[in-house]
Amino acid sequence: MIKLLIVDDEQIERDGMQVILQRAYPDIIVEQAKNGKIAVELAGEFKPDLILMDIMMPGMNGLEAIEKISADYPEVKFVMVTAYDMFDYARTALKLGVKDYLLKPSKPREIVETVGKVLEEIEAERASLAVNKLQQEALEKALRVVETDVVTQLLYDHVHEVHIDLLMEMLDIKSTRESFVMVVMLPAGSEHLYQVIKEKVRKNGSGWVGALSGCQLPIIVFRQPDKSYRTQAVFLARDILSSATADTGARWFIGIGDAYGSLDQIRQSYQEALNATMDLSIPVKYRFYSDMPILGAVSDGQLGRQREKQLFDQVRLGQWDLVVDTIMEVIHSYANAGTNLLQAQQRILELLWMASRVMSELGIEIDTPTYSLQAQDYRQLRIETNHLLEQMRQVHEESYDRLEADKIQQIKQYITEHSNEDISLDALANKVGLSPIYISKMFKEKLGVNYIDFLTECRIEKAKKLLADSEKSLKEITFEIGYHEPNYFSKVFKKMCSISPTEYRKTLLSKK
């Protein structure tokens, strides 16, 4: 309902105005004030949408009251009521944003028409705000869906630049800001806490939560300028760990990667976070990668980290000959350096554990690799390690071979038919019974594009067909193809087609 405040020092004027307006507009709520001072006080309590303000009143006059109320409540609208048709008053009133004015005495029809125009404006603004609110809610819902997909693409694949640039702009996140990855290891039975963790990340500041794959939940965290990297990470880690229940809390763990200045390097931070979860037995249930001992190199720490990253990329891509070469190279470096054999075997086992984690994130079920015996020399260590790697290779290849050829077609068809919906990678994975990360990898290898690119191509192709209909507005087309914001759709279209939707439509229609 619309609230109306009538301000006049004459009781008979106020009562007469109220009767006329409530007869014409029975749904409005009316209050009265006999002077400007009371009007200012009532504005805060009653919160009117429209005020009919008499100008000439004792004490605080109407213009002074309008100025005070407008300063605190700029959304309130005013109609000036005066017995004097004076230019100076009108000019001052216009500066204060007064919508119209009524001269005393006014006929009932004039009062109803003047107030009616302002009431229509208020209703139109309310309707526009309601639509904008619904659109914003739809956009936020879509962004939450896209968020998990973008994390998946960033950590395991490459996102088309159109999505990263525009998404960063829409979420008001500067791409130059430092970011790092946290990997939350959840025990079985804790999947229901996914939304709880997501809400904690959102409340603690900028962060994107990825898809839960097995027991691993990756989070891309954007650095907050008012906190140090370690302070921010520890605060968020402890807040997330507070979600753990008494019976599962001991098995929770969080690995934290280093911070980097570009999203291009975020995969490195993810690998580091994953590595930091390798040993879950330490008392503190989170660990920074920078606090770990360097693995895989005898003297050059940076070389060791590069070697780890190289190894995990090889496992992810299924390049098992290179995996074997990399591991054997590490064993060779330990042998040449005279490293204690037991220590070397333990460190090689840790690398194999990390590799098995990478396979798990791809949706491949694999037992944690273990040596059946303590190696007596480096030759035996090579033989036993090669045996474990061969077992891991077989599991990887068998898992991939089980993927039927029609799965790709099934996924493509589903995306094509449902491209106008908010299709999340999680929902798609559940539909076809595969891991989200596995689908991402499969798209890249089998189709040469990533999942988001394919979805975008489907939407843009549909948009091109709809643009041929001159009766459809850009806003209608935006919603029909699955986007929630016309400006975002226009930017994506121009990025993909090199011209704007409007220009494309003009070209299309000119050919008819």
UniProtKB/TrEMBL annotation:
Q: Which residue range or ranges hold the HTH araC/xylS-type domain? A: 409-507
What does the entry give for GO biological process?
phosphorelay signal transduction system
Q: What is this protein called?
A: Response regulator
Cross-referenced Pfam families: GGDEF_2 (PF17853), HTH_18 (PF12833), Response_reg (PF00072)
Q: Respond yes or no to whether keyword Magnesium is given for this record.
A: no
UniProt feature coiled coil, ranges:
378-406
Q: Name one GO molecular function term.
A: sequence-specific DNA binding
Q: Where is the Response regulatory domain?
A: 3-119
Q: Which residues carry this modification: 4-aspartylphosphate?
A: D54
Per UniProt, the keywords (alphabetical) are: Coiled coil, DNA-binding, Phosphoprotein, Transcription, Transcription regulation
Which CDD domains does this chain map to?
Answer: REC_YesN-like (cd17536)
